[in-house]
Design a protein that fits this description.
40% of the residues lie in helices and 4% in strands. It is mainly α. InterPro entries: Cyt_c-like_dom, Cyt_c-like_dom_sf, Cytochrome_c-type_DH.
Length: 312
């Protein structure tokens, strides 16, 4: 009897492990998505590059001006799950010089690296998954024109169980969704453009939306502000502000105020945007004014929320 029970238990374990292995298998883009991509336009890709904030994480820490186009990596993101280190994504052997467009698209749209492993969502593919395929191709074309760096990528420093990438397959089932973050009724073309810039390319929700215990975004509080996903050197978390028009947010800002802040870094009350927003402004300032106006139009019409964090 005990032997039969042991066999049954062993069979259940094997079935469970097999099921886990199947459901957590990395998923790659389909043939139809690849077929939708024409040859990339590097000139157009530069606009995608700045809108996507690639330099903010992948340029060397402290890089300025043209040096921000050298994507050697090295920025450390300290979180509750461990320390993530931004990799070299320059067009070199140490970076992604040997990546095909399909490899690149799998990373952005599916969160899967060239080696077929799940990527950690410190790389915001949960937003980039909403990118239009041709934008992916154009971005790839631009990055391949940038200066190569021979700096090796540094490994992440994560403890068990977060160092087991396979488990990310379950996390993706819960949180990797290429649908819109918010449903808008009859949005104008300008608002649609703003939604794409905020929800996909700009990945604003990755910092401005609170997360649950396992790191998923709480979309019921979309852009309501949050504790920073990063931990400071003092062991404390900063506050990422509410950018909806709800209490504590930017309800008293006009669309022009928002667009100007994204270009200049100055708020309507003569303060300045600081912290990681300085990099965001450096990126946004390189976009055409129509894109900043579109972002502003979107932020003015999304659902308002009170702060998604507690003020002390």
């Amino acid at each position: 009897m005990l032997r039969k029970l042991a066999l049954v238990a062993g069979g259940i374990v094997i079935i469970a492990l097999a099921a886990f292995w199947i459901v957590t298998m990395p998923q790659t883009i389909d043939a139809a998505t690849m077929a939708a991509m024409k040859e990339g336009d590097a000139n157009r890709g530069e606009r995608i590059f700045w809108a996507g904030g690639c330099a903010s994480c992948h340029a060397a820490p402290g890089a300025q001006d043209e040096a921000r186009k050298v994507l050697s990596g090295g920025l450390e993101l300290v979180s509750d799950f461990g320390t993530f280190v931004a990799p070299n994504i320059s067009p070199s052997p140490q970076g992604i010089g040997d990546w095909s467009l399909q490899d690149f698209a799998n990373a952005l749209l599916k969160g899967v690296g060239k080696n077929g492993h799940h990527l950690y969502p410190s790389f915001p593919y949960t937003s980039y998954t909403r990118m239009q395929p041709q934008d992916v191709a154009d971005l790839y074309a631009f990055i391949m024109t940038l200066p190569p760096s021979d700096k090796p990528s540094e490994p992440n420093r994560l403890a068990f169980p977060f160092n087991v990438r396979r488990g990310l397959g379950l996390w993706k089932l819960l949180f990797l969704d290429n649908g819109p973050a918010v449903d808008l009724e009859n949005p104008s073309d300008q608002v649609k453009r703003g939604q794409y810039l905020v929800e996909a390319l700009g990945h604003c929700g990755e910092c401005h939306t609170p997360r649950n215990l396992i790191g998923g975004l709480d979309k019921s509080k979309w852009l309501a502000g949050a504790l920073s996903p990063e931990t400071g050197s003092d062991g404390k978390k900063g506050i990422v502000p509410n950018i909806t028009t709800g209490p504590g947010g930017i309800g008293d800002w006009s669309a022009q105020d928002i667009a100007y802040a994204l270009q200049s870094g100055f708020t309507p009350d003569f303060d300045s945007l600081g912290g990681s927003m300085t990099d965001v402004v450096a990126n946004m300032a390189k976009l055409p004014d129509e894109d900043r106006q579109a972002i502003a139009a979107y932020l003015k019409v999304i659902p308002p929320h009170p702060d998604g964090f507690e003020r002390h």
